Amino acid sequence: MLLRSICHWVRRTSVQGFMTRFTRQLCSRKRLHTGLADAETIFTLSSGHGRCGVAVIRVSGPASETALRCMAGLTRSLPPPRTAMLRSITDPQSKEVLDRGLVLWFPGPNSFTGEDSLEFHIHGGPAVITAVLQALGSMPGMRPAEAGEFTRRAFQAGKLGLTEVEGLGDLIHAETEAQRRQALRQMSGELGQLYQDWTDRLKRCLAHVEAFIDFSEDELIEDGVLEQVDGSVDGLRSEMARHLQDERRGERLRSGVQVVIAGATNAGKSSLLNTLCQRPAAIVSPIAGTTRDVVETALDVGGFPVLLSDTAGLRDSMDLVEKEGIRRARERVEQADLTLLVVDSTQLPVNNQQLKSFLQQHLSTVLPSSEVRRCLLILNKADLLPGEHRLQLRMELGRLSGLPPVSLISCHTSDGLQDFLKALHRSVKTLCGDPLSDAPTLTQARHRAHIQQCVSALHQYAQYRDLDLALAAEGVRLALTSLGRITGRVGAEEILDIIFKDFCIGK
Fold first, then answer.
1. Is the Cβ–Cβ distance between 157 and 109 less than 8 Å?
2. Residue 138 to residue 67: CA distance in whole angstroms
3. Segment 194-207, tens digit of pLDDT
4. How far apart are CA 344 and CA 348, in angstroms?
5. Which residues contact 74 (CB under 8 A, 6 or more apart)?
6. How many CB atoms lie within 10 A of CB 417?
7. Confidence band (pLDDT; 50, 70, 90) for 341?
8. Is 370 a residue whose pLDDT tops 80?
9. Which residue, among 340, 336, 250, 329, has the nearest Cα to 291 in the 3D structure?
């Protein structure tokens, strides 16, 4: 049995092809090992520019120990790993004391980059920082790091996957609490674990199909192997399809919710923008048609990022500039995640029985019917209404149904503003989801594109399963490649490992 299996394998692959793959595998492992050892030592300021109390300068690479000994005056033993030590930091050439600060030693592979690493915690004055950086640059084998190079080395050393690297980048750029939570969750590897689980299952499916193609003639493969693959592929395709049906919550949270203020001229749109961002971001004037272009500002609404846009008033106009502003306004409404439709409450019908039909007609002129659910109605200028009429209007609005949430406010007196902000927060939270309790969501457009390619490739497997098993296997291979582009890890040798692990081919 052993001899027959070996002969069968040699017939299909040839000894030369086998040796080529074996040699390539050894060389790749050798390059991985020597690449880190022979890499240049890099350094940079990691704590940001500008005056500060403490600045952190990071060093990573094989010359880190030399830099530590030369600049911290350590002639004997190195400090304990990850333990701060107060030392005088000197120029390795002139021996001049540059500063007195903390040094921390991180021997590889137990460091962020997997290499020997070093940190100088020094005073944050520009002159001190410049002096230490120049001293490091004067040492042989040292050079300034390029943007993202520390994280790139961590990825190459297997310390971080690509999704974790992207989570780290998002965490650095997070501006709101919800963005921080989502980035931290992705950086912890939860999204990467989901993709890795899919990758492992796809590898197993591909290994089983390849083994069936190569060895089924010798009756070395158990019965029902392809049926198990069919079930696994179908399950994976369903899971990926559900993962794609997230309404882009993760991407929206990462980049900000697009909220557009729209409505007729002189309804108070610019006043609402200024009230929300608490500064005169837009010109407010009693002259109709003052706003002719889109005015944007970023907001933090209850921890969620919002990009708020004020647009031109919607009306029929012969002015070419205003017509262009109206066109841009309608375009923004079509692209918006949420529309704040502002209505002048002094223009409402006196008869409250006609209120619902008036608001519905107003909505239809601004929004497509399919987008009404992503809208908040704002009845502005409540301060101009008589007190009794305002009270009756609030009661009538509470009884209305079949309309988006309605808020009666006054930008002038801030009456009703808190209730509107609560409604806005609820809507934005619904659009973004809860970054802690919900399932891991897509945060990058490239993730979505690659997973869509996975679904299409698995559909190819189902399409060719009974026609041509080789083409069906190619579909699984394409799906695996697409997932590998997300995680940054996929290799042909792993498929062979699974074949020989799951099937006792040749014992």
1. yes
2. 11
3. 998 999 899 888 88
4. 7
5. 68, 87
6. 16
7. very high
8. no
9. 329
Q: Which two tokens stand for residue 117?
A: 């690493």
Contact (Cβ atoms closer than 8 angstroms) between residue 43 and residue 59: yes
Q: How many angstroms separate the Cα of 491 from the Cα of each of 21, 480, 484, 487?
A: 12, 10, 9, 12
Q: How many CB atoms lie within 10 A of CB 484?
A: 18
Q: How far apart are CA 474 and CA 471, in angstroms?
A: 5
- Cβ-based neighbours of 467, under 8 Å, separated by 6 or more: none
Please provide the average confidence, as pLDDT, over all residues in the chain: 82
pLDDT over threshold 50, residue 353 = yes
1-39 pLDDT, tens digit per residue, is 333 433 443 334 333 333 333 333 433 433 333 344 457
| Terminal alpha carbon distance of the chain | 8
Residues written for the chain: 507
pTM exceeds 0.85, yes or no: no
Please give the pLDDT value at position 217: 58
Residues 6+ apart with CB under 8 A from 239: 198
Q: Is residue 160 predicted with pLDDT exceeding 90?
A: no
Q: How many helices (H) and strands (E) does the chain have?
A: 18, 12
Give the residue among 109, 110, 100, 104 at the shortest CA–CA distance from 46. Answer: 104
Which of 471, 450, 502 is closest to 199 using CA atoms? 450
Q: What is the pLDDT of residue 12?
A: 40
142 Cβ contact partners less than 8 Å away, ≥ 6 residues apart: 40, 41, 42, 43, 59, 61, 63, 67, 136
* pLDDT tens-digit readout, 201-235: 998 888 888 877 776 555 555 667 788 888 999 99
Mean pLDDT of all residues in 182-199: 88
Residue 418 three-state SS: helix
CA distance 395 to 450: 51
Q: Strand 85-90 to strand 142-144: parallel, antiparallel, or no bridges (unpaired)? A: unpaired
d(CA 59, CA 108): 12
Phi, psi of 409 (to 5 degrees): -135, 170
Nearest to 365 by CA among 393, 385, 339: 339
Q: Which amino acid is at 281?
A: A
CA dist., res. 21 & res. 27, Å (int): 10
pLDDT digits (tens, 9 = 90+) for 287-327: 766 677 788 899 999 999 999 998 888 888 888 888 888 88
- What's the Rg (C-alpha) of the chain? 32
pLDDT at 372: 67
Give the integer Cα–Cα distance in Å for 475 and 464: 9
SS (H, E, C) 246-269: CCCHHHHHHHCEEEEEEECCCCCH
Give the span between the Cα atoms of 231 and 144, in whole angstroms.
52
How far is CA 234 from each of CA 207, 231, 456, 462, 486, rounded to the nearest angstrom?
Answer: 16, 5, 12, 8, 21
